[in-house]
Amino acid sequence: MTIKTGQHTFNFSLKVPADKVDEVEASIRDHADFMRDTHSCDDSKIHLVHYYVSRSAELNNMTNPDEGTTGNMLYFINEVYVVPEGIGQHMEAAQVWPGFGTFVNVLSDYGTAHVVDGEVIETM
Predict the structure, then answer these.
(1) How many angstroms from the chain centroid is the CA of residue 111?
(2) Rounded to an integer, what distance in angstroms lies between the CA atom of residue 101 and that of residue 47?
(3) How many folded domains does the chain comprise?
(4) What is the spatial distance between Cα 44 and Cα 47, in angstroms, rounded to a whole number?
(5) Residue 31 falls within a domain, yes or no?
(6) CATH of the domain at 109
(7) Scanning 11, 42, 104, 122, which has the fewest C-beta atoms within 10 Å of its C-beta?
């Protein structure tokens, strides 16, 4: 399914020190399992257009990767919902997910930006 303007999103960015990567990735894997259990890209569950998590080592200088990395890992968690009501449906399902508290702590401890109920304004 194609992402369309007007659809609603969750987008989170995290900056994680190297010594916390395993802990954070365990919570991200738990979140991905929760998403697979309660969401789908068809209308059989909470209807998503798109879900993905990406990561990259943080560069000292993004215009010159040869300058090495900071030691931090950057993560980007992205969810796009078919209809705006998907945001509320997601939050309702998250309230009973056992990993919710841990995941919120990860977002609080390492989050650099949190978009909750964002709106897609450009796409192609």
Answers:
(1) 10
(2) 23
(3) 1
(4) 7
(5) yes
(6) 3.30.70.100
(7) 122
* Joined tokens for residue 6: 């007007």
Please name the residue that has the structure tokens 């659809």: 7
pTM beyond 0.85? yes
Question: CA end-to-end span of the chain, whole Å?
Answer: 12
DSSP state for residue 33 in the 8-state scheme = H
Instruction: Collapse the DSSP code of 75 into the 3-class scheme (helix H, G, I; strand E, B; otherwise coil) and give the result.
Output: strand
Q: What is each CA distance from 80 to 23, 36, 121, in whole angstroms?
A: 25, 14, 12
Residue 124 located in a structural domain: no
Residue 23 has pLDDT above 90, yes or no: yes
State both tokens at 19. Answer: 């010594």
- Reading the block at residue 18, the tokens are 């190297």
User: What's the pLDDT band for 30 if we cut at 50, 70, 90?
Assistant: very high
> In this predicted model, what pLDDT tens digit does every residue of 82-124 receive, in sequence order?
999 999 999 999 999 999 999 999 999 999 999 999 999 999 9
| CA–CA gap between residue 122 and residue 104 (Å, rounded) | 28
